[in-house]
Amino acid sequence: MLYYYNIIRMTKVCVLLSSGLDSTFTIYKLLQDGYQVSAVHFSNGFGTDDTIERVKQIGEFFHIDVDFVCVKKEFDELLREVDVELCHMTNPNICVKCARDIKFGYMLKYAEEKKYDCIATGHYVKIEHVGKDIIVKKAIDESRDQSYGFSVIPNENLRKVITPLGYFLKKNIRAIADEIGIPYTKKESHNLCFTKKPFKEFYMTYVSHPMIQGNFIIGNIKKPHEGIQLYTRGQNISINGQKYTVDRKLPNGDIQLSEREKVFDMKIAIERINFHVKDFDISKEYQIQGRYNATPVTCRIESLTNERMIVMTNTPVFAPTKGQIGSLYDGDKIILGGFIC
């Protein structure tokens, strides 16, 4: 069992199975490494019959048990929280909230109740179990790395989690899976993985709060928008054939637009800090990442408490946005994470 450090004693593993390549290959890899594997597919109310049938097919292929768990109540609550935050002009990351509160929250408790030793997922991140310490690092496949979102998941919630794909390249995983005929859903999920609808269409269908109306403002130009909840800082907007960028949302429902080059900052404040490393040198340089798939930039910590951190970056950062995740790295290792404020 090459990849899981001091978690070797944990042999009964529950894989969170979506039917996609990553979680399916995780089953294959764990079985190859000698783990006792079962799977669980959780339904949030947005799944399809095709997905259920594929999950059953995967279970039959590997000769493992698959449980089906409904988390619609928990997922609806998560979406209500997202709705409230959007109405208060923050821009939460639904995927990160789902990972923290459902995958490594509710589902972790489920696995413990069912007497599993640990859970495994198809995330591209390294979770190293070194003695009593949990170290979260970037995946080998930088194009797939998901460590950014893990920065706000408490170490305690990761103590019984293993993620073997942190040590693989996606292209190699696909090649192995296709060579041995592993069944999986071929289509990759993008944006909101639980719905085929784009965010705007999904939100306007699901929303429980009325859309907050207002205008785009750029100089003397005013143009009505469809609802302040549908826009985020850094989003491109076209008006009269000109491209602008959302700069900030205003309390009256208006949205201030700017030229793209003006939507950069070098000072980033982060609150609700989650520490992955307790003792570290705050005088040295680190790297801050404020968006998924963004390139981390070098920064220095200006101030740090248990609740709040302010960093100054060496180069301007595009559109740090209230409600998004701010992850602090030391090379490939996560130091802490929190929410941009």
Question: What tags apply to this protein structure?
Answer:
Elongation Factor Tu (Ef-tu), domain 3; Rossmann fold; 341 residues; six-stranded antiparallel barrel; five-stranded parallel beta sheet; 32% strand; alpha/beta; 3 domains; single chain; 8 helices
Brief account:
The protein is of the alpha/beta class and 341 residues long. The protein is built from eight helices and 18 strands. Strand 15 (297-304) and strand 16 (308-318) form a beta hairpin.
List the helices and strands and how they pair.
Elements: E1 12-16, H1 21-32, E2 36-43, H2 49-62, E3 66-70, H3 72-87, H4 94-113, E4 118-120, E5 125-130, E6 133-138, H5 147-150, H6 155-158, E7 161-162, H7 170-180, H8 199-206, E8 215-218, E9 221-224, E10 236-239, E11 242-249, E12 255-258, E13 264-275, E14 285-289, E15 297-304, E16 308-318, E17 325-330, E18 333-340
Parallel strand pairs: 1-2, 1-4, 2-3, 4-7, 8-12
Antiparallel strand pairs: 5-6, 8-9, 10-11, 11-12, 13-16, 13-18, 14-15, 14-17, 15-16, 17-18
Coarse shape? globular
Mean pLDDT: 92
CATH class label of the largest domain: Alpha Beta
The percent range for strand residues is 25-35%
Tally of contiguous helical segments: 8
What proportion of the residues is helical, as a percent range?
A: 25-40%
Largest sheet: 6 strands, antiparallel, barrel
- SSE succession: EHEHEHHEEEHHEHHEEEEEEEEEEE
Strand order of the largest sheet: 13-16-15-14-17-18
Number of DSSP strands? 18
CATH superfamily of the largest domain: HUPs
CATH level 3 topology of the largest domain? Rossmann fold
Specify the CATH architecture of the largest domain. Answer: 3-Layer(aba) Sandwich
Radius of gyration: 21 Å
Q: Which stretches are low in confidence, meaning pLDDT under 50 for 5 or more residues running?
A: none
Q: Give the domain tally.
A: 3
Based on secondary structure, the structural category is alpha/beta
CA-CA gap between termini: 42 Å
